[in-house]
Amino acid sequence: MLLLTAFFSFLITTSQAADVFLTGSKTFEITDYSVVKKGVSIGNCIQSDPFTVGGYQWAIEFYPQGFNPSYSDFVSVLVRLLNPKNVVKAIQTHHFRDWNSTGWSTSTPVDSNLRTFSANGYTGWGYFDFMARSNFEVSNYLRNDTLVIKTNIWVVKDSSSFLMPPLSAAAGNLYSWWDQVFQTSDVSVENSKSG
């Protein structure tokens, strides 16, 4: 065990740079879905108010008739980087509010891939086929003609801006160290049992 700890301490102290994620989320409520759907054509969206994550302005985009004609049988959900001046790397997830529970959808796609947002490339990423419209309209995600989308964003900051402490600093009292990390973080951990 001592050899293993020394090995990991060596790895971390000789390569101390690590990616730093700045996180944030936004909920976007859309009322009068049936009216919105009729008034918004394929390829057009309803956009949330801007919100800031990682020092950048973002917006959620909901396409009730699909992102383009190829996806006209789906509802599409994207997150867009507004006024892109720099290349921004981020991970994003989207969930519908499940009105029959206290939580958010788990059956919607989750993309854990790091995406690049830039003025010279894509300013928006998401899911053109987020959910088949026919399934969405009879699901627990639409109630009283209202839906709520929650988008989570993790923006990667320059890894050279953050240095990890050597493992040996935490090895003496891991419980105390993790407690301190969670007290100062924007992360929540949930323990769930299946079965």
Secondary-structure topology with pairs:
Blueprint (H helix, E strand, L loop, with lengths): L1 H13 L5 E11 L2 H7 L6 E2 L3 E3 L2 E8 L10 E8 L6 E9 L18 E3 L6 E9 H4 L10 E11 L9 H5 L2 H10 L12
Antiparallel strand pairs: 1-9, 2-4, 3-4, 4-5, 5-8, 6-7, 6-9
Keywords: Signal
InterPro entries: BPM1-6, MATH/TRAF_dom, TRAF-like
Organism: Rhynchospora pubera
What kind of sheet is the major sheet? Answer: 5 strands, antiparallel
The proportion of residues forming helix, as a percent range, comes to 10-25%
- CATH class category: Mainly Beta
**Radius of gyration, taken over Cα atoms and rounded to an integer in Å:** 21 Å
Provide the number of structural domains.
Answer: 1
Q: pLDDT average, as an integer? A: 75
Low-pLDDT ranges: 1-17, 160-179, 181-195
Structural class: alpha+beta
Question: In the CATH hierarchy, what is the architecture at level 2?
Answer: Sandwich
